Predict the structure.
Amino acid sequence: MCLFQYDDDPEPEERGPAGPLYVPVRPGTAQVVLRIFRTPLGERTAVGFTRPDLLAATLGAGHPWIRLSESALRALASPLGGCLLTIDPTLTAPAVTPAPTQARTRTGDVAARAL
C-alpha cells in the first residue's frame, strides 16, 4: 500500500472531505431520523449524496433529506452501528416486501395470487 501521492495518480489514496451532503432520512416521522443502509456484503453504512439529483436518481424523487457535513454524518451514524460512509452510491435494491399469499379454494386448488 503506497502512502505517497504522485501528480500522475488518477485517484489519491485518501479522498478529501466531501463537503455538505444530502443525507436521506426516514419519512413519516415527526423528527428527522437518519437512514442506515447495507453494503452488498451486508455491512451497515451511512449514505450521503453530493447533489440532490443524485439522491433522487438513486432513491426516487421526493425522498426526504437533510444537509449535513461529513463529520456530522459520521458522528450521527457511529452510535447506530453505521461505521462506514458511502458517498454517491448508484446501485440500490428494491425495498423488501412480503411474498404474495395464495388463496386456496375448498378443494385445495390454488385460486389466484393476491397482488
